[in-house]
Design goal:
heterodimer; A: about 260 residues; mainly alpha; 2 domains; two-stranded antiparallel ribbon; flat; B: about 250 residues; alpha/beta; Rossmann fold; six-stranded mixed sheet; four-stranded antiparallel sheet; globular
């Protein structure tokens, strides 16, 4: 079965795609950090960040609609977190009576809400750029060479490998279920779904055992080893330097303004 | 002929009390290709797992004169290659390269040598150029080939395959049979596909309910229809003329 929901556009040929995954990981981290530590009062910095990340997105040749869709998946969560800040203590802008409470949206609350939303959107754009222009295995290799603990890398790589097998298995089970005219009472349906989830879990568990056996058969002894290190190119050096300069200048010029 | 595997009165029970193998004795010599046939649940897979010490029972299995326990297990696993039935169990890395390199890396080979082994193994199974492909995107036939490559890259002296032609269409099956024919090491092929056995194996061992029921030349066992039917197998209806046992 075809699966492309994870790294559909990681095959495009662009400047950004060609960068070493480590360069992208570190610059993305720096970008997110810069966005997060810029104080809300320095509002001029944010359009600069936006222009910067937009240029990178354009360079990456990712379809705009795809980026928007990706962002839309995450933004509701940010929105949920942000919305509680509207009711911070402070100067009231509008207030509503809910039963016998007085609920007011404050000026300070609005400011925080706006900042949370802006910062989160910018960070999400950065992460979409990273995750859509880098193949997952390359991302893992990058993380590994940046000394991320092995356990995390191995866990992530197994998750990436078997999510497809699991999705396939679940799809097949659903088809088999629906072919037999699945329907009836709500309780019955829930019970069936429960059984399917249980079966899926047991199958995954048993598959885990078999995979482990296959690993042990090829000399696995608990130590994950790696063959080929990645290599930096002049392009990486150039990109890192440029990003650093832009980030530093954006965050400091807004201070000097 | 040098003997490579010696099994002496091997019995094996799973934790749940199920008796999978009963009093099995078998000697396999260097360079042989042995077909291990039997109905579902006969104990074929269990016997395979005994051959590199994944399952163990009290020193009744010797591979290259070494018991499948303690320190010798590591050596044995480097020299006996197991190819599992479901390639999805065997291919667990993000890319084909990582999967094929897994064994050689565990053997502690240098990066250069690992690369050479990987491209050689992929060449053998006719899958050169697939290094950076994700394993899950391949077809079943391709997955089976890669699964064999993951073991060939370790340069094993004995190749043990569990149902290699399962889930393959006829073309995939014959292509795989041709491939196996070209591999010169000792091979043990567990299957209930008797056409494949007729093509590849000079000797056949029939297993049922955990016992060795028959052990002899393939043409003799495959022509004994009564024996095969008594153990839930069916003789290939007609062997094509060009499909002589090798």
């Amino acid at each position: 079965m075809e699966h492309d929901f994870l790294d559909r556009y990681s095959d495009i040929d662009s400047v950004i795609h060609k960068l070493d995954p480590r360069t992208k990981l570190i610059t993305t981290l720096c970008f997110v950090l810069a966005v997060v530590i810029t104080p809300a009062t320095e509002w001029r910095a944010f359009p600069c960040y936006f222009v910067f990340i937009s240029i990178l997105l354009l360079l990456s040749k990712l379809p705009l609609l795809y980026v928007l869709k990706r962002a839309l998946v995450i933004l509701p969560f940010v929105f949920l977190i942000g919305i509680f800040n509207l009711f911070k203590a402070g100067e009231a802008v509008a207030s509503v009576h809910v039963w016998h409470w007085q609920v007011s949206i404050t000026h300070e609350g609005l400011l925080v809400f706006r900042t949370v939303l802006t910062k989160a959107s910018l960070s999400i754009m950065g992460l979409i750029l990273l995750s859509s222009t880098t193949k997952f295995p390359a991302l893992l290799r990058g993380l590994q060479q940046l000394r991320t603990p092995r356990v995390m890398i191995v866990t992530l790589s197994f998750a990436y490998r078997y999510i497809f097998v699991l999705v396939d298995e679940a799809t097949r089970m659903r088809r088999a279920r629906d072919s037999r005219n699945f329907g009836g009472k709500r309780v019955w349906q829930m019970k069936t779904v429960g059984n399917m989830v249980g079966t899926l879990f047991l199958r995954s568990y048993e598959r885990g055992e078999r995979v482990y056996t296959a690993m042990v058969s090829r000399g696995y002894d608990g130590q994950i080893r790696e063959a080929s290190p990645l290599s930096f190119s002049y392009r990486d050096a150039y990109f890192s330097a440029a990003t650093a300069l832009i980030l530093i200048s954006v965050s400091t010029t807004s201070l000097l303004w | 002929m040098k003997e490579v595997i010696r099994i002496d009165h091997l019995s094996f029970k799973y934790h749940d009390g199920q008796e999978a193998l009963r009093d099995i004795s078998l000697v396999i010599t260097d360079g042989e290709t042995v077909g291990l046939i039997g109905p579902n649940g006969a104990g074929k897979s269990t016997l395979m797992l005994q051959l590199n010490g994944i399952l163990r029972s009290n020193g009744s299995v010797q591979v290259f004169g070494l018991p499948t326990e303690g320190k010798s297990v590591k050596t044995i696993r480097n020299r006996v290659g197991l190819v599992f039935q479901d390639p999805n169990d065997q291919l667990f890395s993000p890319t084909v390269f990582d999967d094929v390199a897994f064994g050689p890396i565990n053997m502690g080979l240098s990066e250069e040598e690992v690369r050479q082994r990987v491209s050689k193994a992929l060449g053998w199974v006719g899958m050169s150029g697939y290094e950076s492909r994700p394993s899950y995107h391949l077809s079943m036939g391709e997955k089976k080939r890669i699964a064999i490559a993951t073991v060939l890259s370790m340069d094993p002296e004995i190749l043990v395959l569990d149902e290699p032609t399962n889930n393959l269409d006829p073309r995939g099956k014959w292509a795989l049979t041709e491939l196996l024919k070209e591999l010169r090491m000792t091979k043990i092929i567990a299957t209930h596909d008797l056409e494949v056995v007729a093509l590849l194996c000079r000797r056949t061992v029939l297993l049922d309910e955990g016992r060795v029921v028959a052990d002899g030349p393939t043409d003799r066992i495959l022509s004994d229809t009564d024996l095969l039917e008594a153990h839930g197998l069916a003789a290939p209806r007609k062997m094509p003329a060009e499909l002589h046992p090798c």
